[in-house]
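seq as requested:
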Amino acid sequence: MTADPLLELARLEGVPSAVAAAIDSVDAVLRDRGLRTLAPEAVAAALLTGARGNAALSEDPDRWLPGAVRLSSELTTLAPVIRVAPAQALARAHVLLARGVVPEESLGRITADPETAARMAGLTDLLVSSGGTSAVVLAAVVHAELASVAPFGSGDALVARAAEHLVLVSAGVDPRGAVPIEAGHAGAPAGYRRALDGYASGTLAGVRGWIVHCAGALSRGAELLGTSLRH
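struct tokens:
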């Protein structure tokens, strides 16, 4: 059996504690992921917060917000598919996001070059086979890979942020998609971009910094949810 390639990343200095802190933050607001009953309107408000955060990090928030809202509203529908048929889930995510923004024939279609195809095949294998890795680490890597590869040629970073959330939903970290990790990223946009650039550099320090950043974004998302529930 091939070793999970993400296990070593999950052991990098600072990553285990950052992941544990993020999970603790989520558990604190969701009371062990299910003991607290979230009203439908609270979930809807949280999904909207996530969509706004996702769009806010784009080059044209107003242009992408309607699609980000559509995509956010289907997080729990797409989540069961992301680890079973990743290509299908990602294509559907792009269709939801980019409808009305890009030509119909470009919706859900990956650009046809060998390097992109190879990177996406590797990402698909990772999603299907990485069963033992922390979901936070897997979600972070999926996010960064999609943002770096830009397979669709439009809206890729928004799909990448949604894909991170899909992995967390599918793993039961955030079963209702109510923790707006996208808004957690948007709360520190300069840090988000620096961390993503660090991942793209390919160094262990850059990858480590990115994973720690994503864990922090999850914690910030949990804090935002907790604040909204108290009001």
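The domain at 7-229 is CATH 1.10.3290.10 (Fic-like fold).
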